[in-house]
Write a structure and sequence with these properties.
Length: 647
């Protein structure tokens, strides 16, 4: 193994606390920036030691954490062995034995990382980096979809099986739900304790002390209960976990991730179709995200396999083999949640098996998700009467509708069902988009038409000059020096994907929408105020209502002295300057933006014209979106009888 770890541009940005664009600038502007030692032209790799030396030489702050050092040492072995080494690191963290297949120095670093952060957290860090590095090679179920699947099948408190477990995403989902439940309890207990202390403060120090003590006890009890639920069923996590995976490396990683959480798990490596690792075993629930379109699944060898209760899967329908495998391994009345390619709901080759699944009452729901369909199945019990309807739902734009719809179906009060007899009389096509009821398409069409007709905006009335004006000019850089403009940016490592503080994002600036991001309270946040000019790489906008939001990543805020400079005037010239930069030109220096030196009254006239152009742009964007909606609703309404041409 090489002892000279390498880093890519993203790693360097993370270490130095800057964006990837800053690293690109360093490479372009500094001839002595370290040269690549590997990788490709598009994904170069650099020597970590050379990069550290360069950063120190230029006085740029950086921090290589212990976790980063462990990760870089693992990466130094090359991509081909990376998964194997991550699996070995998991084996080391899960074993009391000091022996390891890793070299001595790396094994010592892995142990130190485990001691510093806890074995489970340390290993999750390495696994996250591994999945990030191999995101194109590894197929990982989206976490929100995984959480939805385990909630739908009720994976807590029993045995759960994933016959294509990969690196354990679906099997870990119930444990994440347990941990989230525990964190919510801790937060609620802490909030309640703070409220008690505040109320008691007005009644004397003794009451404050008693309230604080009681609050700390509640937080401790909630945290303990949350930790117990995270490693023990408690109604959230499964009692026993079974998993099979073709890749020995992925199976080993899954086993370590579960073992480090204290879960009783049996994870085996092998070809699930040809060599069933759990023959005869029946779980309380099965979850599965199988490989799609895998032609070499064993059709010839498995023609007479007893798992094919509903028909021999055609050679080109491997996903229907996975469906029947899952049903074989679930107890009567047990549920299966399996992701399927959308075409599996309608392909002619699978028609007979789909029909048999419906007749037997095994297939209960087909739900369209982004990129795939979710099939929910229930193994019929002996003598049980099959249902007469199946739930067919389109949730591509909103996953939150799935659980209420499934619950309504189970309680025989759903309005999203299709009669099974109607499906059997047709092509057994269960494509959700084909069966969605659009009783309100006429009303939606009328509303969209009215909005479309009222969305027009008027362009500014601009005077055409035969010769351009020759006016004294200044630059944005000079305005900043003179104190007319101050600039701000968000903290370097700020994220906008979770928290309780609203964030104005780049997408919001582009669309003109309200702040859509969220972050946590931290040092360096920049509050956004009305009249601020906010710019991204592709858009400039004057803030009308800050709404208590803070500035998001990759944005620059320009705050003007409104007594001497009009914000719309500045925003308009920034937009004009950015629009003149052509593809292939050097990086645009915004401080060189030229503006005419005008009185505030003249600036406001320009600013009003720029503002009208911005309103016009928003109206055109809205009209385009409404036009597409109007066309789609018109086509649907005319086709299904909700709309009719005027006679």
């Amino acid at each position: 193994m090489s002892h000279d770890p390498t880093v890519n541009a993203g790693d360097i940005a993370r270490l130095a606390g800057v964006g990837r664009a800053a690293v690109s600038n360093w490479r372009r502007r500094h001839d002595d920036f370290p040269q690549p030692v590997g990788g490709t032209a598009n994904q170069p790799l650099f020597s970590l030691r050379q990069v550290e030396s360069w950063l120190r030489r230029y006085g740029k702050s950086y921090q290589v954490s212990l976790g980063d050092r462990v990760w870089q040492r693992l990466k130094a072995a090359g991509d081909l062995r990376l998964g194997e080494l991550v699996a070995q690191a998991g084996a080391l963290l899960t074993s009391a034995d000091t022996a390891s297949e890793l070299d001595g120095e790396l094994a010592g670093l892995v142990r130190e990382l485990g001691e510093q952060h806890g074995a489970s957290a340390a290993y999750e860090f390495l696994c996250e980096r591994y999945l990030e590095a191999h995101s194109r090679q590894l197929s990982v179920t989206r976490e929100d979809v995984a959480a939805l699947m385990v909630r739908l099948v009720g994976a807590g408190g029993g045995t759960v099986l994933d016959p294509a477990c990969g690196v354990g995403t679906l099997l870990l989902a119930p444990l994440r739900a347990a941990r989230a439940q525990g964190e919510e309890r801790v937060h609620a207990a802490r909030t309640q304790g703070e409220e008690r202390v505040h109320a008691a403060r007005t009644q004397g120090e003794e009451r404050v002390h008693a309230a604080r003590t009681q609050g700390e006890e509640r937080v401790h009890a909630a945290r303990t209960q949350g930790e117990e639920r995270g490693a023990d069923p408690g109604g959230f996590a499964p009692v026993r976990v079974l998993g099979q995976e073709l890749s020995e490396t992925a199976a080993a990683i899954t086993a370590s991730r579960l073992l480090l959480r204290g879960v009783e798990a049996s994870i085996v490596a092998g070809d699930t179709m040809r060599h069933d690792g759990f023959a005869g075993e029946r779980a309380d629930a099965v979850v599965c995200d199988p490989p799609f379109n895998e032609r070499a699944w064993g059709y010839e060898e498995l023609t007479g396999d007893p798992r094919w209760e509903y028909g021999l899967p055609p050679r080109g329908e491997p996903e229907l083999a996975w469906v029947q495998h899952c049903l074989t391994h679930v107890k009567p009345r047990g549920l299966v949640a399996i992701l399927m390619p959308p075409a599996a709901a309608s392909r002619k080759a699978g028609r007979r098996i789909r029909a048999n699944l419906l007749r037997a009452g095994a297939l209960r729901a087909v739900v369209a998700l982004p990129g795939s369909d979710l099939w929910l199945l229930r193994r019929p019990a002996a003598g049980e009467r099959p249902p007469s309807e199946v739930l067919i739902l389109d949730a591509t734009s909103d996953l939150s509708i799935v659980e209420p719809a499934w619950q309504a179906y189970l309680e025989d009060r759903s309005d999203q069902t299709v009669r099974i007899i109607d499906l059997l009389a047709d092509e057994v096509d269960m494509t959700p988009a084909r069966h969605q009821r659009r009783d309100d398409v006429g009303r939606e069409f009328a509303e969209a038409r009215d909005r479309f007709l009222s969305a027009a905006a008027v362009p500014p009335d601009l005077k055409v000059l035969e010769q351009p004006l020759d006016q004294p000019a200044t630059t944005l850089g000079d305005l900043i020096k003179e104190g007319l403009v101050t600039t701000s940016q968000a903290p370097p490592k700020m994220s906008a994907d979770g928290g309780d503080v609203p964030v104005l994002t780049s997408d919001d600036v582009l669309s003109g929408g309200a702040p859509s991001g969220l972050t946590t309270m931290q040092q360096g946040l920049v509050p956004v105020q009305p009249g601020d000019v906010v710019a991204s790489y592709s858009a400039v906008r004057v803030v009308e209502d800050g709404g208590g939001a803070v500035l998001g990543p990759h944005l620059t805020l320009y705050r003007v002295d409104s007594r001497r400079l009009d914000p719309d005037f500045l925003a308009g010239f920034l937009r004009a300057a950015g629009g003149r930069v052509t593809t292939g030109s050097s990086r645009f220096d915004v401080r060189r933006t030229r503006l005419p030196r005008l009185s505030l009254k003249e600036q406001r006239a320009y600013g009003e014209a720029f503002r009208q152009l911005a309103v016009l742009e928003d109206a055109i964007r809205e009209t385009s979106t409404l036009g597409q909606t109007l066309i789609r609703l018109g086509l649907d309404g005319l086709a299904d009888g909700h709309l009719h041409p005027q006679s």
